[in-house]
Write a structure and sequence with these properties.
Distance between the termini of chain A: 37 Å
Shape of chain A: globular
Helix content of chain B: under 10%
Order of helices and strands of chain A: EEEEEEEEEEE
Largest sheet of chain A: 7 strands, mixed
Number of strands of chain B: 11
Oligomer: heterodimer
Radius of gyration of chain B: 13 Å
Largest sheet of chain B: 6 strands, mixed
Number of helices of chain B: 0
Largest interface: A-B, 25 and 21 residues
Distance between the termini of chain B: 38 Å
Structural class of chain B: mainly beta
Radius of gyration of chain A: 13 Å
Order of helices and strands of chain B: EEEEEEEEEEE
Number of helices of chain A: 0
Shape of chain B: globular
Chain lengths: 112, 111
């Protein structure tokens, strides 16, 4: 069974540009989570989807971040416009119920 | 605000030595998990502890959850180079499904 996949693995953009990160959860997992780790800090929760609905988006930093999960399958996280402080590793995780979360390899975002 | 404090942040030991990593908080967690992360990969779950005072063993790794469910420890016996990696503790507060992570302990075991 395929694990959680994320694309791209690495993205380098300039300040002010737009970037879209994609996450494909494990098939059949209704719960999908986004996390972020900025340098020197711990991994922090961004938001939680149950199917296509946002269950909890309390961790989203600001309105430059938009997460979607149309159809309840894959999810995208768009950053527009990107700022320097958005640099970090963005992790996606999925779970069948609200138990074990399986993490993807992450997308390393560098904003110059 | 960082809920979980991990110590030490870095640890370099020789093969065969024992070590303990600590994860402390002032908050009560409904459960606490330990993950291991390799470079370029996401965290991989090692164990979940749920009950205060619980002890779980995974081969040479021993995990303990504090009686008050505010802290946990990971003890590795006779460390091997294959144990090298980043060890993360993470927990669920009594409400919500968001994992709260510590910063991690970077372990290097040299032959």
């Amino acid at each position: 069974e395929a694990g959680v996949t994320q694309f791209p693995s690495h993205s380098v953009i300039e300040k002010g540009q737009t970037v879209t990160l994609r996450c494909d959860p494990i098939s059949g997992h209704d719960n999908l989570y986004w996390y972020r780790r900025v340098m020197g800090k711990e991994i922090k929760f961004l938001l939680h989807f149950v199917k296509e609905s946002k269950q909890d988006e309390s961790g989203m930093p600001n309105n430059r971040f938009l997460a979607e999960r149309t159809g309840g399958t894959y999810s995208t996280l768009k950053v527009q416009p990107a700022e320097l402080e958005d640099s970090g590793v963005y992790f996606c995780a999925s779970s069948q119920y609200t138990d074990t979360q399986y993490f993807g390899p992450g997308t390393r975002l560098t904003v110059l | 605000t960082q809920l979980l404090e991990q110590s030490p942040q870095f640890l370099s030991i020789q093969e065969g030595e024992n070590l303990t990593v600590y994860c402390n908080s002032s908050s009560v967690f409904s459960s606490l998990q330990w993950y291991r992360q390799e470079p370029g990969e996401g965290p991989v779950l090692l164990v979940t502890v749920v009950t205060g005072g619980e002890v779980k063993k995974l081969k040479r790794l021993t995990f303990q959850f504090g009686d008050a469910r505010k802290d946990s420890s990971l003890h590795i016996t006779a460390a091997q180079p294959g144990d090298t990696g980043l060890y993360l503790c993470a927990g669920y507060l009594n409400s919500g499904y968001a994992l709260n992570f510590g910063k991690g302990t970077s372990l290097l075991v040299t032959p």
